[in-house]
From TrEMBL, chain A:
Keyword terms, alphabetized: Membrane, Transmembrane, Transmembrane helix
Matches recorded under Pfam families: DUF2157
TM regions (residue ranges): 39-61, 73-91, 103-122, 128-146, 177-194, 201-221, 227-249, 261-279, 299-316, 346-364, 376-392, 398-417
InterPro entries (alphabetical): DUF2157
Superkingdom field: Bacteria
Organism lineage: Bacteria, Pseudomonadati, Bacteroidota, Saprospiria, Saprospirales
Designated name of the protein: DUF2157 domain-containing protein
Domain DUF2157: 9-150
TrEMBL record, chain B:
Superkingdom of the source species: Bacteria
Name under which the protein is recorded: GDYXXLXY domain-containing protein
One Pfam family from the record: GDYXXLXY
InterPro entries (UniProt xref): GDYXXLXY (IPR025833)
Source organism: Membranihabitans marinus
Amino acid sequence: MSLKKELDELLQSEVISEETAARIRRYYKENPGTANRRLIVIFGILGALLSSMGVILIMAYNWVDLTIRTKTMIAFLPLLIAHLAGLYTLWRRRGDSEWQEGSGVGIFMSMGACLLLISQIYHFPGPASSLSLTWMLLIFPVAYILNSSVTSLLYIAGITWYAGYISYFATAEASPYLYGLLLLLILPYYGYLIRSRNNDFTTILHHWVVPLSITIILGGFTQDQGMWMYIAYFSLFALFFITGQSSVFQNCTKLQNGYQMIGQTGSAILLITLSFKWYWKNLPEKIQATDHVFQAPEFWIAAVLTIAASILLMVLGRKHKAILNEPFAYVYLLFLLCFFTGLYSMYAFILVNLIILLVGVWTIRKGNKNADFAELNFGLLIFTVLIFSRFFDSNISFLLRGLTFIAVGGGFFFANYRMYRKKLEYEK
Amino acid sequence: MKNRTILFLLFVLMVGVQWFVPTRMINQKHSIAVEGRQYKFQMSPLDVEDPFRGKYLQLRFTVDHYKADSNYTWKSGDVVYVLLKKNAQDFVRVSGLTSSLPNGDDDFVKATVRHAFGKDSLQVYIDYPFDRYYINDNIPDTLEQVLLGNLKDSSTINYALVRIKSGEAVLEEVYIDSVSISEWYDRIKK
């Protein structure tokens, strides 16, 4: 139904006064469809992305008949066009997000195309990742100068790809320490986005992409003493989770709060993974076999992340008491306890199982109290996965397994139904 | 207004850098291609089925390893300066490896260590900085068959013509059965 029709109807049934109707009409006249505008921005970005990719593909054709000089000149052509678009944006279209994002993405893609083509024309050795560092370093100012948040997202994806490639796939030993510096280059812009456009879709995407990128790359620092990295990951997820509770994300919905979601899910997955015996079986031997613990970078990464999470927990815990009621803000400390027990006895895995039980029950209770379906079911899910995982390392009869499955299914239904009834009563 | 001027200046500066870096890359390669000395690196017969990875031909050379003395331990990924000599057939052979920059007059190329084996007689495998030849995306099937047949045949002579200046290298052309790939193109077209 159109706005005009709806207003007429509301007027007729005397829900709103004539004055209110007039004010509503004026508002929509002054602010023509934000949804339409967003579509234009999205089409602008998509257009720039697709056409630049088309150019790359056409050029990757490697025209044999062209001379090297001609090919080189063609390599610079898209970059020239994108730069002109950027100049026009600064000159005439500042503040128009479709122009800012479109020209930003255009420069990003055409810069990559230019480097890629030069590497083909002159037969550069090695994989494309060797060029991606140059590409990213050349491109990061675009986000700042043109205020293009999509370019910033592409940059973060690019440095993640680069650091992931050199740390996980390259044959020569390489650590992704440079990644830290590359990420630092874009963080001030991310800060600016949070301060000025916190509700924008691209800012919300940043809340997901930044923690996801760090999660992917952290494992790349692993060398010989991988066991410390579990502590590092637990503390990292706690750091994300606690960050997600800060006032910056107060107005975000759960789905918009990437820090909280990644922190929560990451911790839960790690807990379940470590509830099996395999990790704890060899831990004491591994620790004894490794000397020079204090020289291992993994140890220091774990230490720094744990201290950072603890400081943040203390600082934010003073301001927002609600954090102290969140199990996922503490899990890393409980895991530390398990880890040090694990140095002496492999039965530490029982402790991990107890933690999962505790976290599961706590989450279910909190969900029930706050009438939050998502939280309730997340707690139930943790519980269920714990039960199913224990099936793998024990010889329980099929009958008992079957009965447990039925009981768990019933539990899910019962808990949700009870909450539904509770909500209904409350609404009445 | 002041803000806008600063943004404009920053933008111009950025554009300058974004043009300067690729141009410099080209110039470096160009000066090697013009002034560098020519070397022929003989290619080893192929044992893989598909040498055309996407759009490039993966090059393997007969001189990709050298028995180094055991005084120096080579690690995978190390920079290595490969000293070059020419044999009677004018092809390159390796005469030594060093970890420090050789004298400017020597013939050498900067490369990386792929891996090293053995203790007493250390066998060092070398990755040269010219292991890819980018080729037409829609390479005709007939040409691909001809190239593949020759690359697999150990009796044909295949080599890469490389220009080297002060240790830096540029791949100039690849010769299959002593005929350059671009000439193969022309022959197939006719």
